[in-house]
Amino acid sequence: MKFKGIELKDNTEAELLIAIEIVNISDEDELDEYGEELEETLYDEVFDYDNCDVYTEFLDGDLLNVRCDDITFDEKGVELITTIYKDIIEANLDNINVMIGVHVDGGEWFKREDGSEYNEDVVTLEEFLSNIEY
Question: According to CATH, what is the number of the domain 2-133?
């Protein structure tokens, strides 16, 4: 599978994940408390999949990455990440932005218009789906 022309393959450092950014909370204590509540709500009310053990990881206090080892670089993996993404959106949780993260490491990196390179693209589901090729 390719995303924006970059080949994504199993057994590489490439990864598909969901990035949840907590917004509108600036107080660090409130952010920590909300993050714990968000994580608990996701596990209790959203993450219930027979084909995937979902796990989360907080980065920088306001960014929660949602991963599943069964998200593969094929139609099955895209369907799974799409389902998880939509389930999070449908939960109508406050103070979050939900995006798809495509992380690459290795021989190819994404390129910006100015020629600089980066290794993780964070996009909407629609942009993700419009930029994949099988």
Answer: 3.30.310
